[in-house]
Each structure stands twice: as C-alpha cells, then as structure tokens.
Amino acid sequence: MDFGDKIRTLRKDNGYGLNEFAKEIGVSAGYLTGKTSTINIDTLKVLDEKLGLFQHDALFDPSSPFDLKLGRLVGEVKQLHQDQPNAAEYVINNLQIAIQFVRSQT
Predict the structure, then answer these.
(1) By the 8 A CB rule, do 21 and 11 touch?
(2) Taking every annotated instance into account, which residue ranges of this chain make up the domain HTH cro/C1-type (predicted)?
(3) Each residue of 45-92: pLDDT tens digit?
C-alpha cells in the first residue's frame, strides 16, 4: 500500500468523502489523489490529526476490523479533547475504570 492508498483507506474508514475531506483540510481533491509529488509538513500534521495517519503504523493493524475501530475511536477522542477537554478526560477515565473492573472479574 503506497502513501496515497493509505490516506484513501483512512479517509474512507473515517467516513470522509474525497471532496469534503480535501475542503476540510484546505487542499484540492487532486492533491489528495496523488497528483502531486510532494506534501508539506503542515498538511502531514493535519492528516495525522484528522486520520491518525502515523499512529496506525505503530499501534494498529490495518487488516484487523477491531484495530480499525479502535483507531477511529482514538481519533474521535483526540478530536473531542480539542473541542471539549473535560469530556475527553471523562471518557478516558471511565474507560480505564471499565478495564480495571473487567480485569478484576477474571
């Protein structure tokens, strides 16, 4: 999978259409479809923020439905943290409590 394919897969997995996503991140649709040979660092940062572009390499297996779902949730919590930091902390804290509870039951 080349870089453009990875962006396309993550974009679709996150429910973005090509034109909608290009507009949201401030580039042309052609730019996202690989009609350019370079990409600037600011665009990479936005792609990582919106899609978790680089976190998927280290943490998630793109062939695993569970990992894809988890990756989407991570992106949603990151976005929630930007918009509503207290709500994001609440979600994370409750997830930690739930994990501890489940582990204590086994």
Answers:
(1) yes
(2) 7-59
(3) 888 888 877 765 556 666 778 877 887 788 889 889 999 999 999 999
Separation of alpha carbons 36 and 34, rounded Å: 5
pLDDT average, residue stretch 33-54: 80
Residue with tokens 């086994």: 106
Angle at 74 between CA 20 and CA 3, to 5 degrees: 55
* pLDDT tens by residue, 13-29: 888 999 999 999 999 88
What topology is assigned to 3-104 in CATH? 434 Repressor (Amino-terminal Domain) (1.10.260)
Place of tokens 């793109």: 62
Cα dist from 5 to 8, 72, 86, 92, 97, whole Å: 5, 17, 35, 31, 37
64-19-38 Cα angle (round to 5): 80
